[in-house]
Specification:
Low-confidence stretches: 1-9
Number of strands: 6
Structural class: alpha/beta
Shape: globular
Order of helices and strands: HEHEHEHEHHHEHEH
Distance between the termini: 46 Å
Strand content: 5-15%
Strand order of the largest sheet: 1-2-3-4-5-6
Helix content: 25-40%
């Protein structure tokens, strides 16, 4: 095993390889994954979304000084970063963030509704990236749940571009997540065939997430105390 240049407690330590660090991860107890909430805004109004919709006029974006500080302090452990939102592709520095993570030899998960995907295929189609696209069924059903008549077609066009760019990336690194709803439950078998024909091999069927009134009140109290806003 390679010996770190500095003490293990020094976060500026450099290791000769990721394998060396992964062998040491448990005794060092550093997180294996970080979720970056890049923005609270979105270009969709999905029926199953639990987040309060925020328009571009009221949007907040993670500032460069924050995400660069985070990467500087944590990338030495080679964690996986999850880019989340809102719609993370709406962050004005989205491409720079992805490229910076890749350049640090770390892996990144991109969770997206796919509307802007076509603009970023060049940076996303990389071995370090795993792409998770939210879809809700075949075209008519999907667009109804997403409240966007172009959503399905925009995703299809992006998948075609990814296939032409790197077909192996499409097969190995692209996943679709579908939340089961009354409006799409009868559409699922046909939807599976559609994404198979596209070349996608990974699909997650997700149940809706539920909570209770007491938990909502408790969460709001915590958010107001720590963040100054209600959940």
């Amino acid at each position: 095993m390679a010996i770190p240049i500095n003490l293990l407690t020094d976060r500026l330590s450099n290791y000769q390889s990721k394998i060396d660090f992964h062998a040491l991860r448990n005794p060092i107890a550093e997180p294996m994954k970080y979720t970056l909430f890049l923005t609270n805004t979105c270009n969709m109004l999905c029926d199953m979304c639990t987040q309060r919709h925020v328009t571009a006029n009221n949007a907040a974006y993670m500032e460069e000084c924050i995400w660069t500080k985070l990467l500087n302090e944590t990338s030495w452990t080679y964690p996986r970063y999850v880019l989340f939102g809102g719609e993370p592709l709406m962050h004005p520095q989205f491409k720079e963030i992805v490229m910076e993570i890749i350049n640090r030899d770390c892996n990144v998960d991109v969770v997206t509704n796919g509307m802007l995907l076509n603009k970023f295929v060049d940076c996303i189609a990389d071995k370090h990236v795993s792409l998770f696209i939210s879809m809700s069924g075949c075209e008519k059903t999907h667009n109804k749940i997403k409240h966007n008549c172009r959503s399905f077609e925009e995703i299809r066009l992006s998948i075609e571009k990814i296939k032409k760019t790197d077909s192996r990336f499409l097969e190995n690194n692209v996943s679709v997540n579908c939340v089961l709803l009354p409006d799409n439950i009868d559409d699922i078998s046909s939807f599976v065939k559609v994404i198979q024909d596209w070349g996608i091999r990974k699909l997650t069927l997700q149940h809706p997430q539920w909570t209770c009134h007491q938990m909502r009140l408790f969460t709001n109290e915590e958010w107001k105390e720590r963040l100054g806003v209600e959940y």
